[in-house]
Design goal:
alpha+beta; 8-stranded mixed sheet; 7-stranded mixed sheet
Length: about 625
């Protein structure tokens, strides 16, 4: 027994002083009252009978005194907060990693894996030894410590109650490195992982994670893995028909048996398509939907089992996406006449095109405001204050210079990462004659001939405006006869307007999102899918946050600093789309560094119950005994 409160000398002093006071009260002689009686002979007999029982009366008073001293001793000892010595000396330092990833929302155990995991942690907290210290951490895309190392069970239980599950995958290596940092230098260190085991290998960019010398313990949760999920979902507008859109998605059956599902596509909340599909165990089924219509902004995909039952994970049964908003662009075309160019621009549904001859260019630039200018074998003396596409440029006003003519050039090398050649097939275009372009150091060579030595397609910026230069006359090639021609023209205009077809229709949970916002605010108000809201910091024109929930979001920011009335709203979506997280079959073992984690041991319910609580209970019992004996005239 070890006293963790007042010392033994202090307790002895308190007991001695208080005990003397109690004893003094019992040693005081009782003052008897004088009562006149009419006949004293009768009372003499009563007094003789009382003297015969004097010894017994003294014994009763001594018993009462002993009870009072015992009661006092228990109360004083409780001030010392006594604990068993072995529990003090053999204390452990524990880091409990609670898996809060999306797979922990599975309902194969009721009400969910995460709720069962929290119950397991509560039992561990209540079974801590007197010298144990514990730190609880939520393990998801990040690692969130819920508090410091402590042995206070009430604090730890409040932290357990505050745990919330997320819609993201868990970063297991990061969690293990965090636990190692907490346990560095601590004796009796132990890492407890409470999870369904679907965590992946303990390896990250820095290599394998080492947990020794800490002991690794695994508490498994879950018992089955029936699930079908949407593991890919992306939408984009059709490059040639921007009022229509294309959908690419993938369904995965990670369960043990075949499943039949109904797949719904919803555009702006209305049903667009309904398909019934059958998936074999372990099958990943891609689906592509071209030229869909019926949605202007939001698009959703939902799956449900055809028999009316439910799989065991709901978060991957619903996916969200937003179509990019289209804005009309004013395009000025400076040409002597080019039917192929006019035909390509007719496919742009959101283009307002104006044709002018080279002589009318200067006046058109003065009278109008243009989002883009196309120069067809024309080079202006003064570059436009707009992004520009140059077809076969030559002259002092061109953004790039020309070095020599090329006979029968071809696209031998293409930079497929640049958006102006997206979805185009240029490798087999036949060209009769062209010119070698000489780019500046910051320009990008998008296409080149002669094995890449002679650039014929260059992109870059001049004076803060984008440009694209094509080093041949399209009428001296078969490019206008190919689908690549209108795609190329529209890709250039989309790049100028920042309407990139690689538009991100949805973010992925578990990643850091950088959402572009207008103006230059320092904060933005983020409305969450569940209707809640929170403030988000804005850095370099982007709201930065770690995404943990699927659904539709809206981000509201002031248009300009100091303008609280004029607000701009940006909407975006987020999905899980993680095949590994959708594979919810639980694991019975957790292997790190080739060694399985051990079982949970050393936790006994009530192990940390303080001795002083028991002392107070005994003191309360003695008080009850004293009260009963007093009223039954036993100790008086």
């Amino acid at each position: 027994m070890i006293l963790t409160g007042l010392t033994f000398a202090q307790l002895a002093t308190i007991f001695a002083c208080a005990g003397l006071g109690v004893a003094a009260l019992y040693l005081l002689k009782l003052r008897r009252r004088t009562v006149p009686v009419p006949f004293s002979v009768l009372w003499d007999r009563i007094l003789r009978d009382r003297e015969a029982t004097t010894l017994f009366s003294k014994l009763k008073r001594i018993l009462s005194l002993v009870l009072q001293l015992a009661l006092l001793g228990l109360l004083v000892l409780a001030l010392g907060n006594p604990r068993l010595g072995e529990r003090i000396l053999a204390g452990r330092t524990l880091v409990v990693l609670v898996d809060a990833s999306a797979s922990m929302q599975a309902t194969d155990v009721r009400p969910s894996r995460f709720s069962v995991a929290k119950d397991e942690v509560r039992r561990m907290v209540r079974g801590l030894g007197g010298g144990d210290r514990m730190l609880l951490a939520r393990m998801s895309a990040d690692v969130l410590a819920l508090g410091p190392l402590t042995g206070d069970t009430a604090t730890l239980e409040r932290e357990v109650d505050s745990l919330e599950v997320t819609d993201a995958a868990a970063d297991f290596p990061r969690a293990l490195r965090f636990a190692n940092d907490v346990l560095r230098g601590a004796s009796g260190g132990e890492i407890v992982v409470v999870s369904d085991g679907a965590l992946g290998p303990a390896v990250d960019a820095s290599g394998a994670v080492h947990v020794a010398p800490a002991r690794l313990t695994f508490v498994p949760v879950g018992h089955s893995g029936r699930n079908i999920g949407i593991t890919q979902f992306s939408v984009r507008r059709d490059p040639l028909h921007t009022s229509r859109y294309e959908v690419m998605l993938e369904l995965s059956n990670t369960g043990p048996g075949p499943e039949e599902v109904e797949l719904q596509l919803l555009g702006d909340g209305s049903l667009v398509d309904l398909t019934r599909l059958r998936l074999a165990p372990g099958e990943r089924l891609p689906r592509f939907y071209p030229l869909l219509s019926g949605a202007s902004r939001t698009l959703e995909a939902k799956i449900a089992l055809a028999d009316g039952t439910h799989d065991e994970l709901a978060v991957d049964d619903h996916a969200y996406a937003l179509l990019p908003e289209r804005q009309r662009s004013r395009v000025l075309v400076v040409t002597e006449g080019n039917t192929y160019l006019e035909a390509a621009l007719l496919l742009g549904e959101y283009l307002d095109v104006t044709d002018v001859a080279p002589a009318g260019y200067a006046r058109a630039m003065v009278e109008g405001r243009w989002d883009a200018v196309i120069f067809d074998r024309v080079v202006p003396a003064v570059p436009p204050k707009a992004s520009a596409l140059y077809l076969d440029p030559a002259g002092p006003g061109a953004p790039v210079s020309v070095s020599k003519e090329l006979w029968a050039p071809s696209f031998d090398k293409i930079d497929r990462t640049h958006p102006v050649v997206r979805y185009t097939a240029l490798e087999d275009v036949n060209i009769s004659v062209g010119r070698k372009l000489v780019p500046e150091s910051d320009d990008r060579v998008v296409g080149a001939s002669e094995g890449g030595a002679s650039p014929i397609l260059v992109a870059g910026t001049r004076g803060g405006f984008k440009f694209v230069a094509l080093g041949f006359d399209v009428r001296k090639s078969d490019l206008p006869l190919r689908p690549a021609w209108p795609l190329f023209v529209l890709d250039c205009l989309d790049w100028f307007a920042n309407e990139d077809a690689r538009y991100l229709s949805a973010y992925r949970t578990g990643e850091v999102w950088r959402v572009p916002v207008g103006g230059a605010p320092k904060q933005a108000l983020l409305k969450l899918p569940d209707g809640g809201s929170e403030r988000i910091a804005v850095h370099d024109g982007h709201a930065v946050l770690l995404g943990e929930r699927t659904g539709f979001y809206s981000l509201t920011t002031p248009e300009a600093a100091g303008s609280a009335e004029a607000e701009a709203t940006t909407s975006f979506a987020a999905n899980l789309v993680d095949a590994r997280e959708s594979a919810i079959a639980p694991r019975d073992t957790l292997v790190v560094e080739g060694r399985p984690a051990g079982p949970l041991v050393g936790f006994r319910l009530g192990a940390q119950r303080d001795v002083w609580v028991s002392l107070l209970l005994v003191a309360a019992l003695l008080t009850a005994i004293e009260w009963a004996t007093y009223h039954r005239r036993i100790t008086v």
